[in-house]
Give the backbone structure.
Amino acid sequence: METIRISDDGGVRTLELNRPDALNAFSGLLMDELTDAFIDARVTTTVKAVILTGAGRAFSAGADLQEMGRNSYRPRHGFAGLLDAILDFPKPFLLAVNGLGVGVGATICGLADFVYMAAGARLRCPFSTLGLTAEAASTVTFPQLMGRQRAAWFLMAAEWMSAAECKDAGLALEVVPDAMLMSRVREQAAKLAALPLASLIQTKSLIMDPLRPQLRESAQAENAGLAALLGGPANREALAAFREKRAADFSGL
Amino acid sequence: METIRISDDGGVRTLELNRPDALNAFSGLLMDELTDAFIDARVTTTVKAVILTGAGRAFSAGADLQEMGRNSYRPRHGFAGLLDAILDFPKPFLLAVNGLGVGVGATICGLADFVYMAAGARLRCPFSTLGLTAEAASTVTFPQLMGRQRAAWFLMAAEWMSAAECKDAGLALEVVPDAMLMSRVREQAAKLAALPLASLIQTKSLIMDPLRPQLRESAQAENAGLAALLGGPANREALAAFREKRAADFSGL
Amino acid sequence: METIRISDDGGVRTLELNRPDALNAFSGLLMDELTDAFIDARVTTTVKAVILTGAGRAFSAGADLQEMGRNSYRPRHGFAGLLDAILDFPKPFLLAVNGLGVGVGATICGLADFVYMAAGARLRCPFSTLGLTAEAASTVTFPQLMGRQRAAWFLMAAEWMSAAECKDAGLALEVVPDAMLMSRVREQAAKLAALPLASLIQTKSLIMDPLRPQLRESAQAENAGLAALLGGPANREALAAFREKRAADFSGL
């Protein structure tokens, strides 16, 4: 794989987003390879838990805006396929947020079983500033984790959330000093991998089964909402401002 | 309008409950005019966010008990109409709780997108002490925000909840020093109003759409529960004690 | 009753798990008698609130593993009957967790209306270490109270949770110094018992009615999951290790 680095240690598999020069932005290729990685981890019987993290100083800058205009890559799974692969992943899924997470780099936290954040990491959902809307089922995962008010502010106002705020909001289970993040996450993953996989799968299934229908329904509604906004006046103004290196002006929009 | 003062500043509309001598109690007229205000803010395209607050030292003492006996006013919308107007309001709705909130002055916090409380404000749900039950869909909004245990205690035990407790419980997003409440809420509302309204509406819709059916169903069940208790032995004892300026005696009830 | 000690004080009934030498483990007889006690408290009109606590230093060690092999007792209600009796109990149900709670001694906290924990108490869900899975609808009550991430860790990783952590997670409403636990819980129960029972029942019903279908569905799914795991390789290894007083080895399982 070109964009995902995979390594196994005991029953713990680590997937590392490996586009550090692009701040691990989710390109079409990265989404396909990450989807394949989740599917492979699912069917590989020696894998008992998966850690996802990012190479370099960022966790992920989110969707690859550079690529958006070009569209040369034809995705096999796409974002919808990635979302399905994560929602269907039956084993423990730990997230090690090693640095900034933006867009899907933030909303993916709502899909993980256990999120560990480096103390210096922070998250942002810039959807409104792009004239767009929230994704990755975050409109249901975030309210369930942090309450509707905090979720609505985080998803609508496009402000940064520090690691400490993420922990307080329940979006992160633990905040860890930056240098100790990976050792702590590996320690926790190893605890899970020492337990019977059938029990872990059964308990995760019992927790997730009642939630999945709404997660899928909201993800579909988010896609429809996104499609309605893409190319609209606010989205065009946001992209124009981005190209012209000026602040967007949404007055009247 | 007689009971609601409306003012616009940029895209932010402020609705002020304006019955300070009655501690902004919800009379029939106030409920109708507040309903009209939400409907007007909805259809007025220049309004991008709404702040609701109270004039004077209280936010709202809740239902107007003085008016209850008389019933001279024939409501056009009533409480059910107000609840619908708030549930259907598609734009950001910020609440500035400037002082005490009792009954619907407390439960309305569960319906707002963002609640800001003055440090000296506090809330109470006195339903049990009146021989009645909870309203405004609070039997579903409160458990979702603060967990079932805290919600059940707040709704059943009729004790005061301080601003700090409300923030800890997720019922308030922020506690602000009393003198700075309105400037802080206006600052946050202005941030939202600077963003594209279509994105705000879309994201709010995605968050609220999955919740609305249960909110409406619970509000109806609450109304049925209220109707079953109104005029019953405990409610009669509560009203008699109120008239006779003595403590109610619910032993055996 | 042999395993439950019942005492009334005003409108407050206290049920005490009374197998202190077995750390109040849930034997078949205890489950039947506790079921009967909830049914009796339900129909006894003078009872306005129920406190459940444990005799001795433990709250409850959970399912009676000693009894599991023998099966001499033929249960009348069983665990499913107990769960129904608690889910259907219409009056306030306070839990006084006086010491350690393991298994159902921990998951029952998700079913109570109000949980008070002694500062020295702690909880653990050892299901994975037994090759089993979670029960008592905890796969839905725990995520709703504490968010999915904390719930998944608590239910899957089999680690202890301190009283302070339980309060922070919303699983306990209050932590009380050990010596003051019962006086505090009685004080809170007496506040509720001084209010009209019809209001308490109505408000609890409004809170619980929307939650019950999923609670029952999850409890059934948990039972099916448990049945699938009982006697499986991990469960057999766990029981063998228990008998042989060694650590279980789940590698490859």
User: Anything to note?
Assistant: Residues 212-229 of chain C form the longest helix (18 residues).
